[in-house]
Specification:
- The chain is mainly alpha-helical and about 190 residues long.
- The chain has eight helices and two strands; from the N terminus they run αββααααααα.
- A two-stranded antiparallel sheet has the order 1-2.
- It starts with 12 loop residues before the first helix and ends with a helix.
Length: about 190
């Protein structure tokens, strides 16, 4: 039996925000057709957008592309790992955008709380200083430059979750994991 607790099932704003996995997209497609023991070609993902994607489907076929996607590993969900082409995204008739910056801007625009506030709302302990994330000294310096030496409370959620080094399942950090666990059980009940 379904249990919706009297409300329709939907994905929460928190889930939508932590499920923003753009930094998992690779810069290249490792093309590995069915039956091939290893990738035969590295194709820049940027060349597979719009008409390039359609041409690749016609040339390689959907089964070979699905095999390639299934064999290729996702990139790590860590800081400084957005694909290079995401910083120079364009769509015909529109301005060029930096998708990483746009992700942060949209979160702020929707009122997504900063990293520490988000953690408090989940019942997780906030960090006291950037070093608590477990990142290297160069990343700590970048964070201080962006948010200020005392900017831990202003750090954006996406930045904080990308920098977390405490990773219960290795793939993503403690904050993302807390949301995934809640949503997994909620989906099963609904």
């Amino acid at each position: 039996k379904r249990n919706n607790y009297g409300v329709p099932h939907n994905f929460s704003e928190q889930f939508a925000e932590v499920y923003r996995l753009h930094h998992g997209v690779p810069d290249d497609l490792s093309y590995q057709p069915i039956g091939s023991a290893k990738p035969e070609q590295e194709i820049p993902i940027d060349q597979l957008r719009e008409k390039g994607g359609r041409a690749m489907i016609e040339q390689a076929g959907v089964p070979n592309l699905l095999n390639s996607f299934g064999m290729q590993k996702m990139h790590a969900l860590v800081e400084n790992n957005y694909p290079k082409f995401f910083s120079d995204m364009s769509v015909e008739g529109q301005a060029v955008v930096d998708l990483g910056a746009l992700d942060i801007f949209r979160a702020r625009e929707r009122g997504v709380p900063p990293y520490n506030t988000f953690r408090r709302e989940l019942g997780l302990p906030p960090i006291e200083k950037f070093e608590d994330l477990g990142v290297d000294a160069a990343t700590v310096e970048k964070l201080k430059k962006l948010y200020g030496d005392d900017g831990v409370e202003r750090m954006d959620l996406l930045v904080g979750t990308s920098c977390e080094k405490i990773r219960p399942l290795k793939g993503f950090g403690q904050t993302m994991f807390a949301i995934f666990v809640q949503m997994a059980s909620r989906r099963l009940e609904a």
